[in-house]
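Shipment paperwork, digital attachment
Item: protein structure file
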Amino acid sequence: MKETLEKIIFETIIKVLNQEKLSITINQSQVKLEKISNATFGDFSTNIGMVLKLDCNVIDKIINQLQTNEVVKTFIEKIEFKQPGFLNFYVKTEFLLNNLKTIVNLNKKQFFTTNRKSFLIEHTSPNTNKALHIGHLRNSVLAMAIIRILRALNHKVTADCLFNDRGVHICKAMLGYLRFNDQVTDIKDLLNQWTKQPSKWPQPIADEPKDAFIGKYYIWGNKLEKEEKYKEELQWLLREWENNHKQVRKLWKKLNDWFYEGFSQIFKIINSQVDHYWYESKFYNKAKNLLKAGVKKGVFKTLEDGAILTQLQAYNLTDTIIQRSDGTAMYFTQDIYLTKMKTSQFICDQYLWVVGPEQKLHMQQVFAVCDQLQIGNKDKFKHLSYGAVCNKDGSKMSSRSGEVLSVVELLQEVVTAINNKMGTDYQSLKNFNKKDQEHIINQLALGSIKYAMLKLEREQDLKFDINEAIDFRGNGGPYIQYTYARCCSLLNKTKPNLSNQDELNSQLSSEEKLLLRHMLYFKEALTKSGENLMPHILATYLFELAKYFSSFYEKNRIIDAEQNQKLRIDMTKGVANILKWGLELLGIEVMAKL
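Attachment content:
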């Protein structure tokens, strides 16, 4: 309806401007209908009169012609002009009720876009040397919400992930593992001992996240590196890995395999997924050929000391070294080669990288160089950055070891906080058996964390307050999850009065009208979230819908209602359908009982 109305408004303005012989330029993108927060002034509004600086006479003629349009008459009750140039549209109650029917009988195909695109979206992309932490979590939660929303709109989306599985950081974990209980024996002898009897060396215990297991040895390797003796050992491990030393490679593979197991466990817990994995170890030594080709084409230049430098003046970007004077490559080179592989293997309309904001310049430089090397048009490449996650006072969220809080540690803290409130706010959880109770608490905890991350604009820092996140009366995931459960409970208890089945047998109450009106905006919220790659639009919509339903529920009987009973049951079904699907798109599980 909204898109149709925008088109009709545009065509009507063109017609009136021609009739009045006014030489005013207008394009359809200028006609944007926005929902009005205060229902007193209508349902949708456009400021096109102000944008085009139209006088009242012209605006009156536009309104008159719109009011005679047969399509407009099907869903618009009246149109009003408000200074300094707004056209406000009031939707007919009949149209609100028809919209409700489509939501009750939810056909997800009705939300498909007519402009279908293909996307490759890289997310999470961890180093394989430490536990997945809250930064990875926000990355993954954001990316998966975008992926699900785009797919819901019928876009083709492939999710990919790069494992930074080689380099000095991985060797630090290897050094830490070999040296954890022995700082005396020669490093080569330690490696021989491990090779002969690996089972006698530390192994992850049953419930220990394997990524965290690797992480503690990385921390120890970091500490050892400060001493010259161990720094030399670290460099030896790095050199021998590149020389394909059999024992070094075997240890490297073992530690990485443990990490991958931990990674899979965490991804299963947080309900994230990847369609294609890239491994830096498989292509890092192939990237140098791109540099030779770039130098030959004049894209790069060689400095006096042999280092290779970009030439990005035409892109208004600073230059960067992409190969050291000793001939060793930088991460930059590998990113260029990876982009080449992406564009060759996955032909897409757009390539997205969900990467932290500290990589902004780096990503711009990579995109520009790929443009220069004709790997792909830089306009097809987009960096989606996101804000940090910190404590409510702005301080770093750290574990007891001082490291950034891991995903598992954060989840455990939130689960504990919910358990501590079972005697007060979460008393209903006592009605479940232990197994169900544990599952529900975990999903409430995940919902709390994910919603806290998604309700903010993408680049906004999150100051995480556990008590605020788990408050089921405030703007948090549990509030929306509980609202869905309340809808299910009402629908299970409601026994429709068969003698009272009219679509509408009484005037709508103000709460009914506001709730119906807000359901009308669902498609817009979903579409905008996808078009702008901003899940917070959908998250905010769902919270507002839950609030409107709560207001409706508090002031209108649903069970054994004496008026509008079928309508109210259908409204409850409609809200449940939207909340369920909307939360699923955000990666948040819903439960019919809470």
